Amino acid sequence: MNIVRKDIDQSNVVLTLQVAKADYSEKVDKTLREYRKKANIPGFRPGMVPVGLLKKMYGKAVMAEEINKLVSDELYKYIHENNINMLGEPLPNEEQKMIDFSNEDDDLEFIFDLGIAPEFEVELSKKDKVKFYEIAVSDEMIDNQVKSYTSRFGKYIQEEVVEEKDMVKGEILELEDGKVKEDGRKLSDAVLTPAYMKDEAQKAAFVGTAKGAVVVFNPAKAFENETEVSSLLKISKEEAKEITSDFQFTIDGITRYYEAEVNQELFDKVYGEGIVNNEEEFRAKVKENIKDSLLGDSEYKFGQDARDMLIAKYESLVFPDVFLKRWVLETNKNITPETLEEDYPKMIADLKWQLIKDKVAKANDVKIENADIEDYAQKITRAQFAQYGMVGMDDELIANYAKDMLKKEDTVKNIIEKVAENKVLEIVKSAVKLDTKEISIEDFNKMFEN
After folding, report:
1. Which of 6, 103, 257, 377 could pair with 402 as two cysteines, CB 3.0-4.6 Å apart?
2. Three-class SS string for 208-230?
3. Please, which residues have CB within 8 angstroms of residue 224's CB and are 6 or more apart in sequence?
């Protein structure tokens, strides 16, 4: 087989593969002989079907299959051996003639278009400037986090007199004309909280009432909608719509939630025994945790700004636009020419960023080890727990959660891509000049508003 390369310009190459009969005839004959061993044709014993008959029946299909496989193998072998950094995949040239596989005496010609990635090197120096925003941790943020911990580690205590936010348990009976209705609704384990009642009069009927008291109220007036009534009486929403009568509620229990005090017991529950020994240390530790969690946001913003800086720096890179648009349309049936034109600038920006990352990674011999993947999975796991105020979690517990996460192939792939990008960004950060600026969380968030 002969392969001819024609460089149209720096971004487009045409490869012509010239295929002679000698390139494929032996493989076609071999495949037909394999067919002969398995062919089951009436009138012939297994393995005794004449090759000529098989060739007449299957020759054209076998020839097409073997030639297409040969062309594909040789095409990619040539691309690999010649270090052609192509974009997308080879596409048949638009002037490619129809191939007649019925005439095996003719030489065949396959023409492919290739889009070529631009040649460039990424040069980083202190002349390149990128902002890095350090988010200030305010006293309010610390207070809110402390409040979150005192709420989370509080406890329920049984009380004797109802307050608005208490959970009140008891027996509920439907009334008629001020008396218990004989066949009315009855529930022995009803639960309500006066704070959720929309009607102040109904709420006042409970607040200040002692355990053992009987309260008469109207659920339809007390609550905002039938959903809450159905939940209280344990009936359907349709049934709840029909409820208009009064009910009596015999209070059997009053449960009140008390937030935890800011003391050694709380310190130990949040961070482990003996890690924090007083409120000053506790607030300092909370501030440190908040700062650590906000660092991820700062790094994310830095990644965006570094990306924008580098894309702008290599704005002059030339891409095979016509080829790429054609490739996108042929490989993505849901994309129209109109949407492609609209989205193409963003696609090129993403492609440029990918090429830049690859260049930086290759120049700095970036490698992704299993330990990197596991560490990042654990980092994600800790962040997920932290969202619910669960810090200082046991390392073994975190590791087990992370292992479960890594059982998903797509998750592993995404983590590898993210770890690689993070390593590239660390290289960029160490090479450029950081324009560090402290900023409030409010002003930082405004930068992401559209």
Report:
1. 377
2. CCECCCEEEECHHHHCCCHHHHH
3. 198
pTM above 0.85, yes or no: no
- What is the model's pLDDT at position 54? 63
The pLDDT of residue 95: 82
Q: What is the mean pLDDT of the chain?
A: 90
Q: Is the predicted pLDDT of residue 261 greater than 80, yes or no?
A: yes
Q: Tokens at residue 49, please? A: 């079907």
Q: Based on the fold, state whether residues 87 and 159 are members of the same structural domain.
A: no
376 in the same domain as 313? yes
Give the pLDDT confidence score for residue 61 in this predicted structure. Answer: 77
- The answer on 6 and 103 residing in a single domain is yes
Are residue 293 and residue 381 in the same domain, yes or no?
A: yes
Shared domain for 309 and 396, answered yes or no, is yes
Do 176 and 204 belong together in one domain?
yes
Across-strand partners of 215? 249
User: What pLDDT digit, counting tens, does each position of 45-100 carry?
Assistant: 666 666 666 666 666 777 788 888 889 999 999 999 999 999 999 999 988 877 76
**Measured distance CA(142)–CA(131) in Å, rounded:** 26
Are 419 and 299 in the same domain?
Answer: yes
Host domain of residue 51: 2-116
pLDDT on residue 107: 80
Tell me how many degrees the CA angle 119-120-121 measures, rounded to the nearest 5. 145
Please give the tally of structural domains in the chain: 3
Q: CA-to-CA distance for 209 and 214, rounded, in angstroms?
A: 9
Element (H, E) at 343: helix 337-363
Which of 258, 277, 312 is the last residue in one of the domains? 258
Q: What whole-number distance in Å separates Cα of residue 153 and Cα of residue 168?
A: 21
- Structural domain contains residue 122: no
